[in-house]
Design a protein that fits this description.
The chain has helices at about 40-45, 65-70, 90-100, 115-120, 135, 150-160, 165-175, 180-200, 225-245, 285-300, 305-325, 345-350, 385-395, 420-430, 445-455; strands at about 1-5, 25-30, 55-60, 80-85, 100-105, 125-130, 145, 210, 280-285, 335, 355, 370-375, 395-410, 435, 465-470. By secondary structure, it is an alpha/beta fold. It folds into three domains: about 1-175, 3-Layer(aba) Sandwich (Rossmann fold); about 185-255, no CATH class; about 270-470, Rossmann fold (3-Layer(aba) Sandwich), CATH 3.40.50. It starts with a strand and ends with a strand.
Length: about 475
C-alpha cells in the first residue's frame, strides 16, 4: 500500500490583469458552499472587524446558502458580503480572483484542497485553517495566515492583521510560483513502479494505491495489475515527464519519500548555510561529518541518514541554493542518490520536487531538460561510471545546470575508489564533457586528500570522500 499525493490540476488558466487598488482587503471564498468550509465562523469573525469585504462565490448545498444570507443581514456586515451564486466556470475564475486580494479557506475539516495553490497561482494571499494540505501550502506570516479550525477569535485576530494594506500587499507579493510539474513526475513514476513490480513478480494484483486528492471532491485509483497496466502507466510517464522535459524509461520506486510532501516546508536561504558548507569539498575527518549533521538538525531539516550521508547531502543542498535556485524552488532535479541519502527528503522539505531514480536505472533523458543531477553518498560514483555519467550530464543538463556527485577516496587499486592522483584525471574528463568544477581542488583540499591518504589506517579501505560539483557550460 502506497499513499500518494494526487498532483493538482488548477482551473482558470493564467492570472488576469489587476486594476490598481489600495483599499481595504477584498476576501473571496471560492467553491461549492458546504458546512465544512467554515463560512459561518468566518462571517462571525468578519462582523467584528470593519472595512474588509467578502465575496462568496459558488453553489450552496442545502439550506446553508440561506443561513449565510441571513447572517449577512447583520448591520455589522451591511454592504460588505456579496454572494455570487451558482457554479463558477473555469473561464470566469481568473477575472474573479483578479478583483480580490485574499482567498479564505477557513475550513473546519479537510483532507486536501487545491484552492490554496490556485490562489497563489493568481497572486492572492491565503487565510486558511490548519487542516488538510493547507499547513504545507501556506507559509504562515509570509504568503498568508493560518488559524485553528473553527476558532472565531483567531480568525478575528487574523482579519485585524489584514486590515493593514501593507501586510496584504507584502503577502500577495510573496505568493510562491506553484510548481505543477514535479508533483506529476513523482506521481506517474510511482504508478509505473507499481505496474513494473507487478509484472516482475508475475502476480495478478499489484500493491494498492491510495490517492489523497489535491482538490475538493477528489478521486481514487488502483495500481496496475498486468502488462497492459504497465503500458498505460508507461504512457503516463512518457506524457508527464515529457511535459517537464524528462522521460524515464523505467523509474523504480518513484513514490519513495512522497510522504515528505505532507510535512511543513523548511524556510532555508543560501545565507543560512555557513561558508564551510561548500559545493566542492573533501571529507577526511569525522568531526566535519558530525558538524554537518548537527547543522542540518539545527536548520530543521528531517532527521535522516548517517553523519557522512548528511555531509554529502548538505553540500548538495548548498550547491543548488547558491548556484542554481532563483528563490522560486522551480529547478528540475533528478536525484539518483538512492534511498539512504537524506538529499531527497531535504530537497522536498525546502520546497523542491525532485524526480527520483535509483542509481542503476536506465534512463532516456531529453536533451537540456534538467537543472540539477545528483548522485551522492552512499551511491558514490565509481571510476567505471564516470564517462557514462558525464555523457548523461552533458546531454541532459541545461546550460548552467549542476551535476553534484561524491567519490570514495582510497587506494586506486581497489574497486570503486579514486586515489588522490586519479581525481585530476576525472576533472580532465569532466572538462572534456563541457563540465566546469564549482570551486576547486587546489591548495587546502588537495592537501586534505593527501594528508588523509598518508594517515589511512587500512590500505584497502576508503580514507575520505570527495564531493564534486560541476556546472555545465
Amino acid at each position: 500500500m502506497r499513499a500518494l499525493a494526487l498532483p493538482p490540476h488548477l482551473p482558470g488558466g493564467p492570472r488576469a490583469a489587476r486594476e490598481p487598488y489600495a483599499g481595504p482587503a477584498r476576501l473571496v471564498a471560492l467553491g461549492i458552499v458546504r458546512a465544512y468550509k467554515g463560512l459561518e465562523p468566518l462571517l462571525d469573525a468578519l462582523a467584528q472587524v470593519p472595512d474588509l469585504t467578502l465575496t462568496i462565490a459558488g453553489e450552496a448545498w442545502g439550506d446553508l446558502g440561506e443561513r449565510l444570507k441571513a447572517r449577512a443581514t447583520d448591520p455589522a456586515l451591511s454592504g460588505r458580503v456579496t454572494f455570487r451564486e451558482g457554479y463558477v466556470p473555469a473561464a470566469k475564475i481568473a477575472p474573479l480572483l483578479a478583483r480580490h486580494d485574499v482567498m479564505t479557506l477557513t475550513y473546519t475539516s479537510a483532507t486536501a484542497s487545491q484552492n490554496a495553490l490556485l490562489a497563489q497561482t493568481h497572486g492572492l494571499a491565503v487565510l486558511a485553517s490548519t487542516v488538510g494540505s493547507f499547513p504545507h501550502d501556506v507559509h504562515d506570516g509570509v504568503d498568508g495566515l493560518l488559524v485553528p479550525p473553527g476558532d472565531v477569535e483567531a480568525i478575528v485576530e487574523a482579519l485585524r492583521y489584514l486590515r493593514d494594506r501593507r501586510v496584504v500587499d507584502r503577502m500577495m507579493a510573496a505568493a510562491p510560483e506553484v510548481n505543477l510539474t514535479g508533483a506529476w513526475a513523482d506521481y506517474v513514476g510511482a504508478l509505473e513502479a507499481l505496474a513494473a513490480d507487478s509484472v516482475a513478480a508475475g502476480s495478478d494484483a499489484a500493491d494498492g494505491v491510495v490517492v489523497h486528492p489535491r482538490r475538493d471532491g477528489g478521486s481514487g485509483a488502483d495500481g496496475g495489475t498486468d502488462a497492459g497496466a504497465r503500458g498505460v502507466a508507461g504512457g503516463l510517464v512518457a506524457r508527464a515527464f515529457g511535459a517537464v522535459g524528462v522521460a524515464a524509461e523505467r523509474v523504480r520506486d518513484g513514490a519513495r519519500g512522497l510522504v515528505a510532501a505532507a510535512k511543513p516546508r523548511v524556510d532555508l536561504a543560501p545565507a543560512d548555510l555557513p561558508d564551510w558548507v561548500r559545493p566542492t569539498d573533501v571529507l577526511a575527518r569525522d568531526d566535519d561529518a558530525a558538524a554537518a549533521r548537527a547543522l542540518a538538525r539545527s536548520l530543521g531539516l528531517p532527521r535522516r541518514g548517517s553523519r557522512v550521508e548528511a555531509w554529502a547531502a548538505l553540500g548538495g543542498i548548498a550547491a543548488v541554493l547558491r548556484v542554481r535556485d532563483d528563490g522560486s524552488r522551480s529547478s528540475i532535479i533528478l536525484d539518483r542518490s538512492g534511498g539512504e541519502s537524506p538529499f531527497l527528503d531535504w530537497a522536498r522539505a525546502i520546497g523542491f520536487a525532485p524526480v527520483v531514480a535509483d542509481p542503476g536505472d536506465e534512463l532516456d533523458i531529453e536533451p537540456e531538460s534538467l537543472d540539477v543531477m545528483t548522485r551522492l553518498h552512499p551511491a558514490d560514483v565509481e571510476a567505471g561510471d564516470v564517462l557514462d555519467l558525464f555523457g548523461q550530464a552533458a546531454w541532459a543538463l541545461r546550460p548552467g545546470g549542476l551535476l553534484i556527485t561524491t567519490f570514495a577516496l582510497g587506494p586506486g587499486s581497489m574497486p570503486g575508489m579514486l586515489g588522490a592522483a586519479d581525481v585530476r584525471a576525472v576533472l580532465a574528463q569532466a572538462d572534456n564533457a563541457g563540465l566546469r568544477l564549482v570551486g576547486d581542488l587546489d591548495g587546502d583540499l588537495t592537501a586534505t586528500m593527501r594528508r588523509a591518504q598518508k594517515h589511512a589506517r587500512d590500505p584497502r579501505a576508503a580514507y575520505g570522500l570527495a564531493r564534486l560539483t560541476w556546472r555545465r557550460r
